[in-house]
Amino acid sequence: MSKDTTNTKALQPKQPLLHIVRRADLAWWKSWLFRIGAFVISCIVCLIIINSVTGAGASDVWKALVKSFIGSSTSVGEAIKTIQFWAVIRETLLLLGIALALVPAFKMRFWNIGARGQFFAGALTTAIVMKFLTPYMSTGMLFVTMIVGSVLAGALWGVIPAIFKAKWNTNETLFTLMMNYIMVQIVAYCSIIWAAREGAPGMGVINKLGSEFYMKGWFATDIMSGVFSDKNDMIMVFIVVALAAFMWVYMNRTKRGYEISVVGESENTARYAGINVKSVIIRTMLLSGAICGLIGFMMVSGYAHTVSVDTEGMRGFTAIIVTWLGKFKVGYMALVSLLLSLLSAGTSQLATSIGLKETLADVLVGIVLFFIIGSEFFVNYKIKFRRKEGTK
Amino acid sequence: MSDNTAIKLVNISKSFGSVKANYKINLEVRKGEILSLLGENGSGKTTLMNMISGIYFPDEGSIYVDGQEVCIRSPRDAFDLGIGMIHQHFKLVDVLTAAQNIVLGLKGKAVLDEKSIENKIADLCAKYGFELEPHKKIYDMSVSEKQTVEIVKMLYRGANILILDEPTAVLTPQEADRLFEVLRNMRNDGKAIIIITHKLNEVLSVSDRVSILRKGENVGTIDTANATEMTLTEMMVGKKVELDIARPEPKGDIKRVEVKNLTCLNKYGYKALDDVSFDVWGGEILGIAGVAGSGQKELLEAIAGLQPVQEGSIVYFDPEKDNQPSQLVGKTPREIKELGVHLSFVPEDRLGMGLVGSMGMSDNMMLRSYRQGKSAFTDRRSPKALAEDIKERLEVVTPGISTPVRKLSGGNVQKVLVGREIAAAPTVLMTAYAVRGLDINTSYTIYHLLNEQKEKGVAVVFVGEDLDVLLGLADRILVLCDGQVTGIVDARNTTKEAIGLMMTKQNNEITEKGGEAEHE
User: Fold this and answer.
1) Domain holding A205: CATH number?
2) Which residue in A has a C-alpha nearest to residue B355's C-alpha?
3) Are A277 and B306 in contact (CB under 8 A)?
């Protein structure tokens, strides 16, 4: 067979340099090897960047990272009492909480990117209850009102796009995104008219009473306070763990969860099975919005004691990454939330301790995410290179 | 290599994950011949042709066109080499005319010279015997006209090697004959033609040689003159199979479902069903014949409560309530079920409608039964037992009952679906293209299951495309054409040709006579 075929109609008899082949199922440990490998490589890339900008070496970076997590404590007992430790845990819980809210919607292929707005709906309601109803209620009653109000507000903000989707098949991605802007502007408006004082940027810390109640803790037992320094955070842990357990059971063991999976896979199949697709969409978004609202309540009543346009901190969008990277599995999502919280705490610590710019710190988070998300490609596909000439 | 070879494949392999779609395939097509590529669905025919036409790239092996080794990286490369593929699903722009579609994507001046384009199209049509109106818009065309446009498009671009993927699947027997005539003309002009098919009679009537694929490997190429249906079938399935389908005499004589003056609109607002009336009896198999898209889908979905009905009635006679009639029109699938109607439905789109692809067998069993009981939680145990039972009884090949059904082969997917629907102990069982794409052994398993149901007194509705199967399996055959009933005939006393004519409404006499045929 002649090799001299370069004259055929502008076609070189060359194969493309590489082509992509789908993998058969990869063993689970191999896929984790890819992911961990990607993480390690991303860390190396980050180190190179940090080194070239600030001149800091790997050991400096490590020290700064450790400090960001446990402060300067030397024992485990001390470490879990540090502010840094609880800051990371708190961030993890908030992210995981919102991500859990997104699970049923995403599983239904309803792309709810309105967690930001639904979170704010709950947060604002909580702040309003705190500000205006405190004089009229006992503390316990106040908390019940805040929880119910924030859950309802979040559910309302979530269900509006769902109704439009169910009735007129509007695009839920654009709709939920739009709802975010509306809610952020409402929050901005409220924080101006109820500003703590003329010209102040926000409401300021409201309801000292509520916050004191919180500081004493719901579970006023000395056993707890001996182990955990800040009971606010412990309550959050209980709430989010309960939510996670609820979501797992709901999605995997209930008829409603089963219906959500079927609708997400194929609306035709759902109709065939006699499922009322419209009511599933509406019902599921009520739940998704309600949980977002509840996390908004947690944030305002537990930590912020005020509300402003910065309260949400874009966690509604970050949680989308958590949900996807965690493949809708509660355990994975918890891991991803922790990783993201550690990353953001670590990089901002780097920003102060070794003089990395705050903006560059965000770039580093982006690099790590890029590698981890990129590793999924290699888990699913392999790349074959062109065979060498003369191997036929 | 002789000068006469148009295209030659040497040791072509292609895998998708662990599935070897093609393994070391050698194939040669000569100029001026029609080669049939025969094989069951899933035997790798379409994959192989997609590699020639530049859609996939082979993992291994080489392709020679006119004696020169080539590398086909994209459809554009294939096109430059004179290879044209006509896919099962046409790739035409609906709002353009035939002529505009034909020149679409070609290089040329900014302003189209319509006159010379039309002349060239007219020349091609005259040369090979096509009938084509260059000014007609695609959306006004029948399926066979669209196919003509696709073929002319390839010829216009100078294709010398034509690949047709199941070209007759959507045609009536008469249209298929006309297509074969055109193909013969092209062959005589020196074109190399490959037709992918799994219909044996077509292979025998049109092709010069036939290559048979089985499980991704080429098991042999023989001259059609030396082939018979039996030898081809043997090569295709690897062992001798009995071609006769059993057909017990219908038993019951109780009317189960009565459809009267049913009219439905499709999603575009056209009449998909137009004044359709017929009865289904317990203990019989009612075959439904018709060219694809004649209203079969809408008919079954209307009965199942999935398709809105404009006019007419569907009455179910409940054997558990002394054949008390109940109206099904206007009810949702859930309401129909709650009415006590044991209606099982095997839809055409198995993974898109009948099953959930990402779920395992066990979870798919739940699809029909999960609502049972008052608890908010799902019962996982009985679906699991049912899945194990179906896996055992129907010999479903799967790594486990929790493996996503999407990963199973087409035949096994259908076994899961049919198994589930039959397990619901139906009184009415509707199936749409129940054996499409299945190998012969699985097809017979399905026929056997349907006959079993029939003997139990179930009213079985069998929408089919293969007339031989309909004639062999059904007791009566209802023929649909453009949403209208063009005949209901006794399957034991009719011929393929008669049904073919009714599918195209070409013979009113037969239609009327057929319409009078009664259930015996």
Assistant:
1) 1.10.3470
2) A269
3) no
Is the minimum CB–CB distance between A392 and chain B shorter than 8 Å? yes
Picking from B69, B334, B378, the nearest residue to A274 by CB comes out as B334
Residue A380 contacts B, CB cutoff 8 Å = no
Distance CA A202, CA A189 (A): 10
Residue B16 has what pLDDT?
75
Task: Say whether A272 and B57 touch across the interface (CB within 8 A).
Answer: no
Q: Is residue A3 part of a domain?
A: no
Q: Which pLDDT score is estimated for B346? A: 94
Buried b (16+ CB within 10 A) or exposed e, A142-179: bbebbbebbbbbbbbbbbbbbeebbeeeeebeebbbeb
Q: How confident is the model at residue B515 (pLDDT cuts 50, 70, 90)?
A: very low
**pLDDT number for residue B419:** 93
Query: pLDDT tens digits for B328-371?
Result: 998 999 899 888 889 999 998 899 899 999 999 999 999 988 88
* B182 CA to centre of own chain: 23
Confidence of residue B199 (pLDDT cuts 50, 70, 90): confident
Could you give all domains of chain B from N- to C-terminal order, each with its CATH number?
5-237 (3.40.50.300), 248-342+426-438+457-520 (3.40.50.300)
A277 and A214 fall within a common domain? yes
Per-residue pLDDT, averaged over A301-315, amounts to 83
Nearest residue to B509 via CA among B486, B483, B492: B486
Domain count, chain A: 2
pLDDT beyond 50 at B65 = yes
Contact A91, A344 (CB under 8 A): yes
Average pLDDT over residues B366-392: 88
pTM of the prediction? 0.74
Q: Cβ separation of A11 and B81 shorter than 8 Å?
A: yes
Per-residue confidence band for B505, with pLDDT thresholds at 50, 70 and 90: low
C-beta separation of B511 from B500 below 8 A: no
Residue A113, pLDDT score:
94
The predicted pLDDT at position B18 comes to 64
Quick check: is A171 in a domain? yes
For A303, the domain range is 85-332
Q: Across residues B43-58, what is the average pLDDT?
A: 87
B71 to A14: CB separation less than 8 angstroms, yes or no: yes
Q: What angle do CA A216, A221, A222 make, to 5 degrees?
A: 100
The structure tokens listed for A236 are: 């959050």
Collapsing DSSP to helix, strand or coil, B335 comes out as helix
CA-closest candidate to residue B11, choices B224, B232, B216: B216
- Decide if A274 and B333 are in contact by the 8 Å CB cutoff: yes
Residues A146 and A242 in one domain: yes
Residues B396 and B412: beta-carbon distance below 8 Å: yes
Residues of A in contact with B337 (CB under 8 A): 274
Chain B residues with at least one Cβ partner in A under 8 Å: 15-18, 57, 59, 62, 64, 68-71, 73, 77, 80-81, 304, 306, 332-334, 337, 345, 347, 349, 351-359, 363, 366-368, 370-371, 376-378, 380
A14 CA to chain B: closest CA distance, Å? 6
Contact map slice: A 268-327 vs B, CB within 8 A: 268-269, 271-276
Average pLDDT over residues A211-229: 40
Interface test with B, best of A11, A256, A261 (most B CBs within 10 A): A11
pLDDT in tens, B11-25: 999 887 666 788 899
Q: What is the pLDDT of residue B196?
A: 87
Q: Is the dihedral of CA A238, A240, A241, A246 positive or negative?
A: positive
Q: What is the mean pLDDT of chain B?
A: 85
What CA–CA distance (Å, rounded) separates B371 from B418?
20
> Does B376 sit within 8 Å of A256, measured CB to CB?
yes
CB A262 to CB B368 under 8 A? no
